[in-house]
User: Which sequence fits this backbone?
């Protein structure tokens, strides 16, 4: 949700995350590091690449973002987007109490690349956007294309 600033071409976010028995995953402050165990603290590295600024039917700005997670922590994208960047995922009601036009989190894994656990080969799988995601994007006005990777024709 919200509009990334034009000078934010690619954002690298490197923050420690932690979850305790009574709390959801969250970013921890330097002061909190002394109160948690090494097992509770998880490093996280995330790259956010804004692709386009859109406006929904009520005039609210949205940003289509390509995200690369390096560390793959539970809720990493959701907590970093909401709590560090101040741009929560549309439809994420755990990290954003504001209701939106989505009935689910508007996250999509377009491409996943990983090393096969037994043969060591690099594997890549791809998936097209879900229909509800396409409908949401097609119902928005594309205000500003920030990257050549953004293609309103694909929605």
Assistant:
């Amino acid at each position: 949700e919200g509009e990334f600033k034009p000078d934010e071409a690619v954002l690298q976010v490197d923050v420690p995350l932690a979850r305790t028995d009574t709390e959801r995953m969250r970013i921890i402050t330097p002061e909190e590091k002394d109160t948690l165990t090494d097992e509770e603290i998880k490093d996280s590295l995330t790259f956010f690449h804004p692709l386009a600024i859109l406006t929904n039917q009520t005039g609210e700005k949205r940003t289509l973002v390509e995200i690369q997670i390096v560390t793959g922590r539970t809720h990493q994208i959701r907590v970093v987007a909401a709590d560090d960047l101040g741009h929560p995922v549309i439809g994420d009601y755990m990290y954003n109490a504001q209701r939106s036009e989505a009935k689910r989190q508007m996250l999509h894994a377009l491409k996943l690349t990983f090393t096969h656990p037994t043969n060591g080969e690099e594997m890549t799988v791809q998936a097209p956007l879900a229909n509800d995601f396409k409908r949401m994007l097609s119902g928005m006005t594309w205000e500003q294309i920030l990257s050549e990777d953004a293609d309103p024709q694909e929605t």
In short: The two ends are 18 Å apart (CA to CA). Helices lie at 76-84, 131-138. The CA atoms of residues 108 and 126 lie 10 Å apart. DSSP finds two helices and seven strands in the chain.
